[in-house]
């Protein structure tokens, strides 16, 4: 049997559908305002793509990424939370790194740093 469609109401009556996000109008959001930033040139010398997430301690990235690792200590990518940067084989690109904030506790990804990144 078909239900009576009038029990569901008129779709045009709803101002916002469930789950719709309506961000406030603004000039935008500045990520990591006031934090120290550096730029590094990074090259993937490997034969596979490498993707690095937003909050991964950059010094711990795949060894096929060639860059000044000492400068990346205590830093992560300066990109929105949950996003990442992908390096295809042979790619070179400049990335911006920001200081890891909060208590600066880092759990090792490749056994380079485990503890406070100070």
UniProtKB/TrEMBL annotation:
Matches recorded under InterPro entries: Urease_beta-like, Urease_betasu_sf, Urease_subunit
Keyword terms: Hydrolase
Keyword Glycosyltransferase recorded: no
Gene3D superfamilies membership: Urease, beta subunit
Entry's Gene Ontology molecular function annotations: hydrolase activity
Gene Ontology CC: urease complex
Gene Ontology BP annotations: urea catabolic process
Alphabetical list of Pfam families matching this protein: Urease_beta
Protein name, as recorded: Urease
Organism: Alexandrium catenella (Red tide dinoflagellate)
């Amino acid at each position: 049997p078909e239900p009576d469609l009038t029990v569901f109401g008129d779709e045009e009556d709803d101002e916002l559908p469930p789950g719709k996000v309506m961000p406030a109008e603004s000039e935008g959001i500045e990520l990591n305002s006031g934090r120290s930033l550096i730029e590094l040139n990074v090259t993937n010398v490997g034969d596979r793509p490498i993707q690095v997430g937003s909050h991964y301690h950059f010094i711990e990235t795949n060894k096929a990424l060639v860059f000044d690792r000492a400068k990346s200590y205590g830093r992560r990518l300066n990109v929105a939370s949950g996003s990442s940067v992908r390096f295809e084989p042979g790619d070179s690109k400049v990335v911006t790194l920001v200081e890891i904030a909060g208590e600066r506790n880092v759990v090792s990804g490749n056994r380079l740093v485990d503890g406070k990144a100070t």
